[in-house]
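Lab meeting, action items carried over

1. Structure of the two-component assembly. Owner: GW. Status: complete.
Input record:
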Amino acid sequence: MNYSIDYVERVRSTDYPSYHSIPYWSSTFLSQNIVTLIGESERSLSVQKNTTMQVDPFHIINNIQATISVACALDDSDTRKKVWRVYFGDSSLPRIEDDPVNKYYGSLDKYVDWTKIDLKKSGSRIDRYLDE
Amino acid sequence: MVQRIYLDTNIFIHCGLSQLDQGKAKRSKKLLEQISQGKYEGVVSTLCLLEICEVVRGLAVEVLGVNSPADWKAMISSTIEFIFKNKNIKVIESNPEERLGTSKIKDLMYCSVVDDAHRMIVKYSGTTKEERGKFVHKGVGCVDCLHLALAKMVECDLIATFDRGFEETRIEVEPLIIQDKVW
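Predicted assembly:
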């Protein structure tokens, strides 16, 4: 039987907290099965150990059940332009910076007179805003 | 493949307002630096951007005494600009066009984010706890369920937050509780 990589799966097992990415080797028949199952459950499904092991050439997943979902690269270019326009009108999108974090870190502090703020007294109100 | 992290609103607030809580500010900065360096892929939703507006304005006016609209507007603009200047942060609203893949897979993946959020609101109701003489709800909030549904839709591995309410929903998306993270 000929096998080919149909697409890359990201697999979240019940044993591991994070997703594992594996190339999904399958026959056409198997691939159709998986696609049907995804269709039925919309975005996730449980697979039995044997099923998983048969199609995982690297034996990454060896627990009894795993949740499989389809990997997707993200293209945010249209959303980015649309959102930027809402906030900043016709001004062009900002240049991507190598290290924007250092410039942003603490940059909002200058708007606040911290000598007038009692953080202990304001703690619960701050927590409420920050949902912490 | 790097892990994809959905970023909660409080990450940006703490990084920008470093005097609010210096420990949380440093941890937020560290995470955002790691995203900037390509160690993670960050995801910010349009819901998060709305919350940034709400939280910055509310904190500024009602807690921090920033009464000038020009000032709190500048605080919001700075935060949004920062997000857009970071090459490793994707801005998503969760429409099918954002998810690259075969058309068949994209179609199969399409489902209502709102439906999923409502399902989680029902499933994870949290609990109540007495704090400072008042009963408060402890658990994931209703809007947080929409964050979770968005994070799931774009396949985030983790959701970075200071909000422990997300611990209840770890089966949906694993929380990265920043105050517990040892860098």
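2. GW to write a short summary for the group page. Key points so far: DSSP finds five helices and five strands in chain A. Chain A touches chain B through 58 residues (CB under 8 Å).
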